[in-house]
Amino acid sequence: MTENEPARQDIFFQFDQLNKVLIDASSIIYMDRANFLVLLASSIRLFSIQEILTETGPVSKRIKPLIYNKTASSNDQKLVSCALELNLPVISEDKKILMAMKRAGRPFFNSLMMLNFLLYRRRIQNQQYIQYHLALKKFARYSDDIWDYGAAVNAAINELI
Predict the structure, then answer these.
(1) Are 40 and 128 a contacting pair, CB within 8 Å?
(2) Distance CA 116, CA 68 (A)
(3) In a 10 Å sphere around its CB, with 0-12 CB exposed, 13-18 middle and 19+ buried, how is residue 81 labelled?
(4) pTM
């Protein structure tokens, strides 16, 4: 675990509190490709701004639109602004979005952490986790540090269950 990442106990606390979240286009696409977007959408309430839902098209039909009329120079900035104003965590694969949330001291996740979330909440079993993880590993562009951190969180979850 690097010094920039929250401790596993902090992640578990965040998982315990998580019931609704804003999701970015990159994560919608990642989770859909790995085939666990529908499962996540049945586990927590997923929201996004209309611009993101338009960008992702029919794949985002399980995600509820949030009406957020403030202007921003990009969809990413609008998503962050919306998250901060409505005090919602964010799921994204975009480093700029995640760092903006970190600077604001707000919770943020990526698809790998949401896969761990599903295991933590017992929405999936270890065999399903492995299947989704392998699918994600085929295309997700995470650094080795991110993969290692995800594995450490997974190991901690497995110690709990």
Answers:
(1) no
(2) 30
(3) middle
(4) 0.92
Of 3.40.50.1010, 3.40.50.2300, 1.10.8.80, 3.40.50.1820, the CATH number of 8-160 is 3.40.50.1010
Separation between Cα atoms, residue 27 and residue 37, nearest integer Å: 9
- Hey, what amino acid is at 13? F
In tens, the pLDDT along 96-138 reads 999 999 999 999 999 999 999 999 999 999 999 999 999 999 9
Q: For residues 91 and 111, what is the distance between their CA atoms, to the nearest angstrom?
A: 7
Our CA dihedral for 160, 4, 111, 13, rounded to 10 degrees, sits at 40
* Backbone torsion region of residue 78, taken as left when φ is above 0, otherwise alpha when ψ lies between -120 and 50, otherwise beta: alpha
